[in-house]
Amino acid sequence: MLTIIDYGMGNVGSIKNMLNKVGVTSKISSDIEEIKKSEKVILPGVGSFDTAIRRIDELGLRQIIVDLATIKKIPVLGICLGMQLLMEKSEEGTLNGLGLIKGESLHFKNRISPELKIPHMGWNIVHINNPTELTKDFSDEMRFYFVHSYFVKVANPENSMLKCHYGIDFDAAVNFDNIYGAQFHPEKSHQFGIKFFANFAKL
Amino acid sequence: MLKNRVIPCLLLRNGGLVKTLKFDNPKYVGDPLNAIRIFNDKLVDELIVLDITASKENKEPNYALIEQFAGECFMPLCYGGGIKTVEQANRIFALGVEKICLQTSALKDLKIVTQLAERFGNQSILVSVDIKKDWRSKLKLYESYTGKTSNQDWKEFLIKAVEAGAGEIVLNSVERDGTMKGMDLDLIKKVSDIISVPLIAVGGAGSLSDIRAAVDAGASAVSAGAFFVFHGPHRAVLITYPKYDELEKLFK
């Protein structure tokens, strides 16, 4: 079962909606036993870093997610804030991320031209840095919907799957082994998101 | 780089799609769900749906309808109309809507904007500002729920709305609404200069070059109703949206 982890933050409904469109059965759940039995998980996220970490810890989900990723080694996909949670830490907060991929999240502020508004919001084009199963059959110009004020910087360049440009180049999607992250919202990116989710579902 | 968003703006009135002219004379256009399906097929950047009588008539948002809309949108959806409380907002977000738009409750007390932004994140909370010229051609803040201009200073209100936590501002020109005769570029520039968050300009777009002009004047995104819903001199109903490469070329 593909489980969409519901910890109270993130558009779980929209994700399930698009997965339905792709023809994939999924379950939205916050139940530890159900999540443990998953064959794939999606970790959504909208909001602030520390609030999300606190919720995840309160629900006892941290160790479950880490074990699923590193011991059971099932495919894990973090979306938007969910991707930032996979990293070690974020400038947005003080708490520790899940630490599944080495790297951190940084604020766009003072790192991009002051004319560029923050958050980075809207459709932008991604470029493949390191192809994976999730980038299979990507056309030359794949675009996705982004909305974020913090961006991810991976410690190891080979973990950067897709890159995007907004004032600076940043990691639009990351990958380490069976662990994936997308800064953009595939569930709100039309057929581009459908392709991305279809690839994830096929893993 | 980031592409400027072009966003169809749909107006709801008693569950039907309508289009106004200068914020008046709502004309029935059709079934909103059908329009949304068509826009989804046309891969629009984003969609804004506003219930124009919810606040006026003190009605609850039509949750059943909103849920149907959200189910058809594989792009971000913004809903506005009658939102006054965090509970209502929570319910709407849970239905699959990405952003909510406030006007009436924000005009009454910006505290609601702060509460919503803190709970759901600034980027999900839009404040809609309608501007009308008075008989001396002076810019005034317009309250669509009363149909009157406000005594609040429009510049101050804008700045306070952003300070309160609005992630985006939707700026509408009452005079230009539905006319398709061009947007108020001067107004767009004035507002763009004073706010640091994305600005969605709406009101008067009648051509792709109008849209480009609005972006050049400082709008981060452009929204339009009549332009995407009417066709020809007799305003026949036809749902249209430019192709992606047309828009790409437009903003180069």
Task: Describe what this molecule looks like in 3D.
The complex is a heterodimer of chains A (203) and B (252). Chain A has 203 residues and is α/β, with parallel strands linked by helices. Chain A has a single domain (2-202), classed as 3-Layer(aba) Sandwich (Rossmann fold), CATH 3.40.50. Chain A is built from 6 helices and 12 strands. Chain A has helices spanning 12-22, 32-36, 49-58, 62-70, 81-86, 190-202, and strands spanning 2-5, 26-29, 40-43, 76-79, 89-90, 103-107, 120-128, 142-148, 150-154, 160-166, 168-176, 179-182. In chain A, strand 11 (168-176) and strand 12 form a beta hairpin. The longest helix of chain A has 13 residues, at 190-202. The model of chain A has no long low-confidence stretch (mean pLDDT 95). Chain B has one domain (5-250): Alpha-Beta Barrel (TIM Barrel), CATH 3.20.20. Chain B has helices at residues 32-41, 63-72, 86-94, 104-108, 111-120, 154-164, 185-194, 208-216, 226-229, 244-250; strands spanning 5-13, 16-21, 24-30, 47-51, 77-80, 99-102, 125-133, 139-143, 148-149, 168-173, 199-202, 221-224, 230-231, 236-237. The chains are: A alpha/beta (203), B alpha/beta (252). Chain A binds chain B through residues 11, 13-14, 17-18, 21, 46-48, 116-117, 119-124, 143, 145-147, 149, 165-166, 185, 187-191, 193-194, and chain B through 1-5, 40, 43, 45-46, 70-71, 73-76, 93-96, 98, 120-124, 167-168, 196-198, 220-221.
